[in-house]
Amino acid sequence: MQRITFCATLMAVIAIMRGADACTGITLKSKDNSVVVARTVDWSGTEMNNMYAIVPRGHNMQSLLPGRQMGGLEFSALYGYAGLAVEEPEFIIDGTNEAGLSAALFYFPNYGEYKPYDEKDKDISLADFQVVSWILARFSTIDQVKSAINDVRIINIDPSASNVHWRITEPNGRQVVMEIVDGIPHFYENEIGVLTNAPGFEWQLTNLNNYVNLKPGPAGPTEFGPIELRAFGSGAGFLGLPGDFTPPSRFVRAAFLKTYSLEQNNAYDTVIRAFHILNNFDVPLGVQFAVGRAPNNMPSATQWTVATDLTNRTIYYHTMYNRSIRSINMNQIDFANIEFQYHPLDTTKRETITPVKIDLPTAK
Fold first, then answer.
1. I want to staple 92 with a disulfide (CB 3.0 to 4.6 A). Which of 128, 132, 319, 335 is the partner?
2. 350, 322, 336, 347: which is closest to 51 by C-alpha?
3. Per the confidence metrics, is the pTM higher than 0.85?
4. Quick one: which of 196, 157, 168 has its CA closest to 16?
5. Which fold has domain 6-200+261-344?
6. In the chain, what is the greatest distance between 2 CA atoms, to the nearest angstrom?
7. How is the chain split into domains, by residue range?
8. How many CB atoms lie within 10 A of CB 1?
9. Of residues 176, 159, 152, 166, the one with CA closest to residue 104
10. What is the pLDDT of residues 1-43, one digit of tens each?
11. What is the pLDDT of residues 72-81, one digit of tens each?
């Protein structure tokens, strides 16, 4: 990590890890069994240094350690991969490798807990913000990750910072959530295909039972004593669907919207559908703070949204600055020969607007 000073990198990452977030993830399948994983990345404290990275086979990495030092786990890439990162290209938040395995990081504040850092274990210590890179570099299946997880010690760069949990997905659609609680890794099969933040994944599933009355379509009319109750409009079956930005409410909303969304014919249409669903989770800047206390004036607290077609190995994203969708076709990348590289998500931080052509009358 010689692109910027280590101290600056560490301080930026710690600031991000201590802040509030509202990331929301969904997984969709198309009629032809293509698998798409998608999510938002939300951070309202400040604009992050957002980038995408292309990592070739054989690329060597080393984990950060607490106390502003290098010296943690060293590993090299058995698989090339691409992903979207924050602050440093090693800090992949969401990515996919050439074997089709996807991994993503979500905040998990106040519920997860890693084992305390121990100097004697520094050679196997792996910073939580580098776990996605480690997974993508080394493994092609979920079971391989599960077998190897106890060979490393996942740590936090700053013990006072928020912890995280992870979503890992195979190209066949199998998905698990990995959470570390009391220092012990737990894996949960994620058949619902949704992930937000805290509390833990099992609690979120149980909480869905509070919304057993919700269903798509109309509701009523209902005889109510001497009068009849009628819905004001369509969609009344979802009356009571939570609309706030807390992680439990976003989990419920994402679960219902993706479950009842119309299944698309192919991967491309499913990617577009994923972006439309996740539009419901864009966080307007300011709603997470008391009136007049927002620390900046970015376009949105949802800094970027990504949808990855695991079947066809293509990553799509748009950002808070530019809603035009861009893509990275991993099939066009020779991971054996390409150089390690990273680039900003936005070359120009401005919305792409195409003027409509109007036929004007010609002068007589």
1. 132
2. 347
3. yes
4. 157
5. Penicillin V Acylase; Chain A (3.60.60)
6. 87
7. 6-200+261-344
8. 15
9. 166
10. 444 344 455 555 555 555 546 899 999 999 999 999 999 999 9
11. 999 999 999 9
